[in-house]
Amino acid sequence: MADFTTQPIVAASSSYTSDIKHLKELEKNGVSAVVLKSIFEEEILNGFNESLDLDDRFNSSLEFLDYYDYELKQESLDKYIQLIEDAKEALTIPVIASINCISAQEWTEFAEKFEKAGADGIELNIFILPSDTKKTATEIEQEYLKIIKKVKSAVSIPVAIKIGPYFTNISEMLRKIDKEGVSAMVLFNRTYSPDYDIDKLEITSSNIYSSPKDYTLPLRWIALNYKKLNCSFAASTGIHDGDTMIKLLLAGADVVQVASTVFINGPEQINKMLTRLEEWMHKKNLLNINQFRGELSSNDTRNPAEFERVQFMKYFSGKKI
Ligand SMILES: Cc1cc2nc3c(=O)[nH]c(=O)nc-3n(C[C@H](O)[C@H](O)[C@H](O)COP(=O)(O)O)c2cc1C
């Protein structure tokens, strides 16, 4: 069973967590829980559009299209349910299903089905790209809250919410999400970003993996909100080694989630991170993580203003750049 106090690493949702062989490797190397690859409603809808040939598109009646859509959705859901059931059978640690939907009613339908399939928790991977100029920031935030409220009322297993950092007032948003009674917040998701190939003049994808320097963003926001909310924090993005994991625990994270480092360094990296944690705790005479969790958060640090500081004023003054 999971012991987050000695094994504070959770396998983040990614293609690595979409098959049993890799899930078993992750468990063997010491993760305390796994978040399965997200089921994306958008992917199901794209699959539906791509599977129609031109004749289908022009000649089909609406009922036929509805049926086609239903079939494809059912197929994707069945596959995902099978993955949950297989993972539950193969692993002893908690298995968390991950959902990313577009239409409001699908979030609850998927969540209910995954709870029935035996998932130990649901992670809602929500990202609404704020590109619609007709929607206000408040309206977008309301959409997040509506999804969370609906899913929370539909299932009784723990619900975690995974979001990005792009809110005008992230601290207020975290409070609103917390009030909905989520069990955990995953701070932060890292989303796909487009890039350009200037030789081919084509749009490509930018770095798929995070950089080990990216961890300072979750560090700041977890440190600022430690002990101010009821839910737990899972730190995510840029956590590639043991030292960085220790920093996020010092900021107040309950667990860290890792994806990129597993792709780059293999699942053995989890074991190395846990060994590093053990060595560090031994050197500091610490017996358990609760003795130091949040010690350098804005609650406990000797200098809380450090987390509010946003300009490099002192750093650059008097220095030659
Ligand atoms: C190849 C790949 C696939 C991913 N797929 C998903 C996904 O299906 N659902 C999700 O919520 N996050 C997904 N992510 C994001 C990760 O779960 C994680 O939040 C992000 O990569 C930041 O953590 P990291 O720095 O440890 O990689 C994916 C990441 C990678 C690298």
- Silhouette: globular
Q: Write out the strand line-up for the largest beta sheet, numbering strands in chain order.
A: 1-2-4-5-6-7-10-11
Tell me which CATH architecture applies here. Alpha-Beta Barrel
Largest sheet: 8 strands, parallel, barrel
Q: H/E order of the elements?
A: EHEEHHHEHEHEHEEEHEHEHHH
Q: Within the CATH hierarchy, at the fold level, what is the topology?
A: TIM Barrel
User: Which bin fits the share of residues in helices?
Assistant: 40-55%
Number of helices: 12
Determine Rg (CA atoms, Å).
21 Å
Distance between the termini: 52 Å
Instruction: State the secondary-structure class.
Output: alpha/beta
Mean pLDDT: 88
CATH H-level superfamily title = Aldolase class I
Bound molecules: flavin mononucleotide
Estimate what percentage of residues fall within beta strands. 5-15%
User: How many beta-strand segments?
Assistant: 11
CATH class: Alpha Beta
Structure overview:
This protein is an alpha/beta fold. It has a single domain (9-316), classed as Aldolase class I (TIM Barrel), CATH 3.20.20.70. The protein is 44% helix and 14% strand. It is built from twelve helices and eleven strands. The protein has helices spanning 20-28, 41-51, 54-59, 62-90, 104-116, 137-154, 170-179, 216-225, 242-251, 260-265, 268-283, 313-316, and strands spanning 9-11, 33-35, 39-40, 95-100, 121-125, 159-163, 184-187, 194-197, 202-205, 232-236, 255-258. Helix 2 packs across helix 4, helix 8 packs parallel to helix 9 (242-251) and helix 9 crosses helix 11. The chain is globular, with a radius of gyration of 21 Å. Flavin mononucleotide (FMN) is lined by residues 12-15, 37-38, 98, 125, 162, 189-190, 208-210, 236-239, 258-261, 263.
